[in-house]
Design a protein that fits this description.
Elements lengths: L1 H37 L1 H11 L12 H11 L7 H30 L3 H5 L7 H16 L4 H8 L3 H7 L3 H14 L9 H22 L3 H8 L12 H18 L2 H8 L2 H37 L7 H30 L7 H23 L3 H29 L1 H42 L1
């Protein structure tokens, strides 16, 4: 039973490594095409805009926790009325959220505020329109992401990760077409990334609909029928998740904007390239970590205690190994991607290795804490990450360049997440074991 339980995490990590390996090679070719055909400035803007959506993780308003927990804790999602109502509530809110995001994106464009927000790395006119179109595309895809949450809740994270393999070939096809046809698309390349993510969401939605048929189909049909089909209360899980995702975005995803504002375009290009190279390790850790969520959720529903301490050691070893490999390959890969135009400083590479390590330590602990009590505990530490990460980054970027930004994130994650999460997990396991012993004594 235990080996079967953890096998999904290992398979998810394996598939993610395979997907990221292939995608990474394709992505390197794509990045080289961008740098050599459109220039370093276009590559810097491309990296800035492709991660723009990471600054608005509140798009799902914390509903991922609601959907994943509802599916994972259900004995039969195909016939569970609570699952139907939870999905209906989630999709209603996500439709509204996506519409608001798209509207704000266009409002910022017509008011001319995009360049003021994103800095000088954004080209006037075309770059601002590109930023708006990126977020409009993102907003359209927001309701579709429910399919990915369903697959995670079903323990099919491996499938969800596997579908992501379509992103890199899609990007290569789009960028390659622009190069072959000599299209002046340098300012609009980031839009292809958002279209690729919408494609992933559509595929996952189709797969999840078949997996829990007919529940998802009924939920979609019930979205406009607010009176006939009432939803469920989502606030108790959604609000702490929402605050955390916003805090994480403000503390960790503002690096590019801070570099754009406080340093040079070359420093931003270096950060973009380093992040792309180390994303193989970071995304593998993330995907395997999310695979732990339904394991801990099912254990809670069955009154079973599972400690995340062993997974922490697994994640630390695996994350460190991947990070060291990428660090060793970074000189060669950066030279190939940029045709020698972008060189990664040693300090930046070391900082990214440290970032992978703290992320690997954090994920198993955070996935254990996905019940209402644990999610609420995470709120204050993640809020504290905002001034910690941004403050340190502002101090270090003028001195260390791109390395200063990621160093701020490393320190913030270690102090504000890893340490308090570990203390919480220890105390929670002791509390639950005491409760279980009292229950056994009462039964005797």
């Amino acid at each position: 039973m235990a080996s079967t339980r953890w096998r999904s995490v290992g398979s998810t990590a394996g598939v993610k490594v395979a997907v990221m390996g292939v995608s990474g090679l394709i992505g390197i070719v794509t990045s080289r095409m961008i740098v050599t055909n459109f220039g370093v400035d276009a590559f810097a803007q491309y990296g800035l805009l492709t991660t723009l959506s990471a600054l608005i993780p509140f798009a799902d308003l914390g509903l991922a926790a609601v959907v994943i927990n509802a599916i994972a804790e259900s004995k039969d999602p195909r016939r569970d009325p609570y699952v139907l109502r939870a999905l209906t509530s989630a999709m209603r809110i996500l439709v509204v959220s996506g519409f608001i995001i798209s509207s704000i994106a266009m409002l910022l464009y017509f008011s001319g505020l995009w360049r003021a927000i994103l800095g000088d790395a954004l080209t006037p006119g075309a770059g601002e329109l590109s930023a708006a179109l990126c977020l409009v595309t993102f907003g359209v895809g927001v309701p579709l992401t429910v399919g990915q949450r369903i697959l995670v809740g079903l323990g099919k994270t491996t499938t969800q990760v596997g579908v992501q393999a379509v992103v890199a070939p899609f990007m290569l096809l789009c960028v390659g077409t622009c190069v072959v046809l000599s299209l002046p698309a340098g300012d609009f390349l980031a839009i292809f990334s958002y279209l690729a993510n919408v494609l992933v969401s559509v595929i996952c939605l189709i797969i999840s609909a078949r997996a829990i048929r007919p529940t998802l189909g009924k939920a979609i049909a019930a979205v406009p029928r607010t009176r006939a089909v009432p939803g469920v209360s989502v606030l108790q899980l959604a609000w702490p998740t929402l605050i955390q995702t916003i805090s994480m975005a403000l503390s960790m995803q503002t690096d590019r904007i801070l570099i754009s504002q406080l340093s040079t375009t070359m420093a931003l290009a270096q950060y973009n390239l380093a992040f792309q190279l180390f994303s193989i390790a970071l995304q593998t850790v993330s995907a395997a970590g999310v695979a732990l969520w339904p394991i801990f959720a099912r254990a809670r529903s069955e009154k079973e205690i599972i400690s995340p301490h062993r997974p922490v050691l697994w994640f630390l070893g695996g994350g460190l190994a991947l990070a060291v490999v990428m660090a060793a390959l970074s000189p060669l890969l950066s030279w190939f991607v940029s045709d020698g135009l972008i060189q990664l400083p040693v300090g930046l590479v070391v900082a990214f290795v440290a970032f992978v390590i703290v992320q690997a330590l954090k994920y198993p602990l955070g996935m254990y804490m996905t019940d209402e009590r644990g999610l609420k505990f995470q709120v204050i530490p993640t809020l504290l990450m905002i001034p910690t990460s941004i403050g340190i980054s502002i101090l270090l970027i003028p001195v260390w360049g791109a390395a200063g930004a990621i160093t701020g994130s490393v320190i913030a994650v270690g102090l504000c997440q890893v340490l308090p999460y570990y203390r919480y997990v220890l105390m929670d396991i002791r509390r639950r074991r005491r409760r279980m012993r009292r229950r056994y004594r009462a039964a005797d």
